[in-house]
Structure formats: structure tokens, C-alpha cells
Amino acid sequence: MRLGRRLLFAALGSLALLGAVPGARAQAPRSITVASTTSTEQSGLFGHILPLFTQVTGINVRVVALGTGQALDVARRGDADVVFVHDRAAEMNFLAEGFATRRYPVMYNDFVLVGPAADPAGAKGRDITAALQAVAAKHAPFVSRGDRSGTHAAELRLWKLAGIDPAATGQGWYREIGQGMGPALNTAAAAEAYLLSDRGTWLSFRNRRDLQVLTEGDARLFNQYGVMLVNPARHPHVKTADGQAFIDWLVSKAGQDAIAAYQIDGQSLFFPNAGDPNA
Hints:
- By secondary structure, the chain is α/β, with parallel strands linked by helices.
- The chain has two domains: 30-108 and 222-272, 3-Layer(aba) Sandwich (D-Maltodextrin-Binding Protein, domain 2), CATH 3.40.190.10; 110-221, Periplasmic binding protein-like II (D-Maltodextrin-Binding Protein, domain 2), CATH 3.40.190.
- It contains twelve helices and twelve strands.
- Helix 11 packs across helix 12.
- The longest helix has 25 residues, at 2-26.
- The chain starts with a helix and ends in a 7-residue tail after the last strand.
- Residues 26-253 form the PBP domain.
């Protein structure tokens, strides 16, 4: 009789375990991978908005923070569900290649030229090309991210507008470090060098030492961010529904309000503009 009971309990226990497996799988946490820029992470924006998104949807977000060019490459390989970057030309190429079918504008801020408070190059002002020409003329130390990021692409466009090829004429004053915005700012602060930074990361950066914003307000310093779902036709494993849910939330009133609410010392780091057809 005791042996019979033991066998019965063992059988019931096995059935309970078997029954628990499908249920456990059904309750596994939902998650997506977002390839994004270092500025969205290092500025603290993701730390502010992602918990709000997860609270509403139950979807966790894993961020791969790289320069825009590298983030787009991650998405091309199918190693991300969503890409959230800030280089419109590169984003349009990504679309043209068929790795996404739609780009959504999300928000903007601007770039600033920072440098030592003494401003030995005389770069202070509103005209960014004049500022870069002044830096090059004095051979003042300049730190470039050199990492194919959106900021690096913007910097190269601005040098071109200034009529200067710093890689060819740098003569030791132009230094490419191949790293993100935070390390670039640390390097510039330590070397008392000039640097192009996105305003969001600059405002969140605390190790400024003697660095100050010297050039700002030029329309050519505008910095737009866009988001795209990786095309499931190219990579069938993409989590289409959950990735689109993230995009839909970003461009919704709730997501746009969350972006607008993120401030440091009373200053907004990003400005939502999901409804702008020209962004």
C-alpha cells in the first residue's frame, strides 16, 4: 500500500512538472534589442524613458549603445530588432538597402563646440565653420570621436563646409580616438582640447574641468534622431510586434511627453518632434 502511494505521488509530481513547463514558457519576459547611439544612453535618456515603456507594456529593452554607423551595422546583421540613431543620410541609406521599410522621426537637439575656457583658438561665437577654421589655423588640439557615429559624421560634414580636411592637415593637433561621446569628452577635458558634442551628453557630463560651450546656435548644428524597425523580410527572427510597440510608444503622446520631461538642472536634453513630416 505504501509503495502504491509513493508511485502515485511520484506520478502526480511528474505530471505537475510537465504541466509547469509550457506555463513557464508562456510567462517568459518579453524583450527586444535596440541598437542605438551612445548619446541616448550616456545622456541618461534611456534610463529615464525605458522603465516607463516597460511598465506600460511589459516589454524589456536591451540597448546596444554604439556609434550610429556601428549601430546600423548591428541591425544589418539582424542582431537588433529596432535601430534608434541620429544620422539622417545613413538612415536613408539603411532604408534604401531594404533593412527597414519606414523611418520615424522622434526628437532633436543640437551639437555644440566645446573647448577650454581660455579659448586659445578664438572659436567662440555662433558660426560653426568660422570656429573650426579658427581651431585649424591655430593648430589647437581637437578631439574627434572617429567612430562613424552620428556625431562624427556631423563633424566631418562641418569640416567640409569649413573647407578643411583635418585628417590630411591635422599635423598632430587633430586626434581621432574611435570611442563614444563620454570617453571623447573625458579626453578633451584632460587635454584641454576642442570637441564637437551633442548637447544631451554634454549636459549630463560632469568631468568638464575647464571645458565650456564656445559655439552654439548655428542652424547647421541641428541634430535629428530617428527610429526604425528592422525589416523582418530580411531577418525573420526580428520581434516585429514588440519592436513596433516600442516605436509606437516613442512617437505617441506618452512617449513624447516622457522625452520632453527628461531634464538635467532644469534644462531639456531632447525635444520631441514625432509629428514633423520634414524631420
